[in-house]
């Protein structure tokens, strides 16, 4: 609840998704990073938006500047609040104005350029979120810490071990939890200088010994006027982690909020693949089966999936699929997927299709000897990501038995050892990779 009104309705949520998403290529070739499909039927953007809604924060802006058409489409079709509510989810793409003609130069600059849009709405605080993290958080607890400490800025942090800490911005705090130092990805020679006694945040002595670092999650709550002050005083500061947080520590009351739940940065192909595969376990670290804090997405009116013989083990099969005498293991099969007889799909994320082919289209493809959408007959696919509307021919072997880490093939890519068939990609009959 807020300092003045006791309501989270005085908080604006800002979700940052403006980067090119090069680490997620080719999944980001035709779409913004927050629009990348997740878990067979969701999009990355559904995670922070759902966290906001479940936390009673319903005024949400999403900042982006690359390939935003599919993200706009998803938001428009998914998040429609009651006409008697002031709730909204709105995409703000980078735009040229009389006072600015440049792209977003970083996370802080993206917020700076959109201040006029935010000023149209009453708010006391701004919740800054990332669009490519997988976690479930009640932001009300985060905000409560912010209010109780009368903070100008509160940074959400996770306890980290030495290996993981190398890739994050690290914080040091005093006994009250106030942040006194910040270093962006410190080197191995100085990382021990950032060790913190995390028992002060409620961890046991054993947990503190195992994870003695506080890593920034890239999630912040700013008091509105404090953010304005920083943006005005440091006009050349373009990034929150590198520029704004160190500056704020020197001038303002900056507090840490410890988050101990599951959190994963899924901004790379390997991390994205691993997070999706974990969802097929009986008790995954991130569980969509949570009635108290559901993850929302676009409602679709699809028939139940049709299984024409075959075998399915430890897998998720979403709505509207047709699986014909195939074997599926440790995989996610996205909406409207088709898998033909004799095929084997293992340890694979299949994102599905945006539409069904009509009977006329199927007949045209057959007459033209063109591969239909889905996985053809007698294929074997392992450790792969198959993007939307992909066409994989018959007798295709996507196995990467040579253990290649990086390659570009005929209708596919290999990134981090994982085979990726891009959106609308075509893999010819008999391909072996």
Describe this structure in words.
With 433 residues, this protein is an alpha/beta fold. The chain folds into 2 domains: 8-278, Spore Coat Polysaccharide Biosynthesis Protein SpsA, Chain A (Alpha-Beta Complex); 306-427, UDP N-Acetylglucosamine Acyltransferase, domain 1, CATH 2.160.10. The chain is 21% helix and 28% strand. It contains 11 helices and 27 strands. The protein has helices at residues 46-54, 69-78, 107-113, 115-118, 139-148, 162-165, 205-210, 224-233, 240-251, 269-278, 359-367; strands spanning 11-16, 37-38, 42-43, 59-64, 88-93, 125-130, 133-135, 153-160, 169-173, 179-184, 213-223, 254-258, 263-265, 306-313, 316-317, 322-329, 332-333, 338-339, 344-350, 374-375, 380-386, 391-392, 397-398, 406-408, 413-415, 418-421, 426-427. The strands form 5 sheets. Strands 14, 15, 16, 17, 18, 19, 21, 23, 24, 25 and 26 form an 11-stranded mixed beta sheet that branches. A hairpin with a 5-residue loop joins strand 9 (169-173) and strand 10 (179-184). It is globular, with a radius of gyration of 23 Å. The mean pLDDT is 92.
């Amino acid at each position: 609840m807020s300092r003045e009104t006791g309501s989270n309705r005085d908080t604006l949520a800002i979700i940052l998704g403006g980067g090119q998403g090069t680490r997620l290529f080719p999944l980001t070739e035709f779409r913004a990073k927050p629009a990348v499909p997740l878990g067979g039927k969701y999009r990355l953007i559904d995670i922070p938006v759902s966290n906001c809604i479940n936390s009673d924060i319903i005024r949400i802006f999403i900042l982006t500047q690359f390939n935003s058409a599919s993200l706009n489409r998803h938001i428009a079709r998914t998040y429609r609040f009651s006409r008697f509510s002031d709730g909204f989810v709105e995409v703000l793409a980078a735009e040229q104005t009389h006072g600015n003609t440049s792209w977003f130069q970083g996370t802080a600059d993206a917020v700076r350029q959109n201040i006029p849009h935010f000023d149209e709405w009453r708010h006391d605080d701004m919740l800054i979120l990332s669009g490519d993290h997988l976690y479930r958080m009640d932001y009300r607890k985060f905000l409560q810490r912010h209010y109780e400490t009368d903070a100008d800025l509160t940074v959400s942090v996770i306890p980290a071990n030495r290996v993981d800490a190398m890739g994050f911005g690290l914080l040091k705090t005093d006994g009250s939890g106030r942040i006194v130092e910040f270093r962006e990805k410190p080197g191995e020679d100085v990382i021990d200088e950032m060790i913190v006694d995390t028992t002060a945040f409620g961890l046991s002595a054993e947990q503190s010994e195992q994870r003695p670092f506080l890593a920034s999650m890239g999630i912040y709550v700013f008091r509105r006027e404090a953010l304005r002050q920083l943006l005005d005083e440091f006009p050349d500061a373009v990034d929150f982690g590198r520029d704004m947080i160190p500056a704020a520590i020197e001038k303002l009351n900056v507090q840490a909020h410890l988050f101990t739940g599951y959190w994963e940065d899924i901004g790379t192909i390997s991390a994205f693949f691993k997070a999706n595969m974990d969802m097929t376990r009986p008790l995954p670290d991130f569980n969509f089966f949570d009635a108290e804090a559901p993850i929302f997405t676009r409602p679709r009116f699809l028939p139940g999936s049709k299984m024409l013989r075959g075998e399915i083990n430890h897998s998720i099969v979403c709505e509207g699929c047709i699986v014909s005498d195939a074997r599926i293991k440790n995989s996610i099969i996205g909406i409207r997927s088709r898998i033909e007889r004799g095929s084997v799909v293992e340890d694979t994320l299949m994102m599905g299709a945006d539409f069904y082919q009509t009977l006329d289209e199927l007949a045209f493809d057959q007459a033209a000897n063109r591969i239909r959408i889905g996985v053809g007959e007698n294929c074997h696919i392992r450790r792969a990501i198959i993007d939307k509307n992909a066409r994989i021919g018959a007798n295709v072997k996507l196995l990467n038995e040579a253990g290649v880490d990086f390659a570009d093939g005929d209708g596919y890519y290999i990134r981090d050892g994982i085979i990726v068939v891009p959106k609308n990609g075509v893999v010819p009959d008999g391909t072996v990779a």
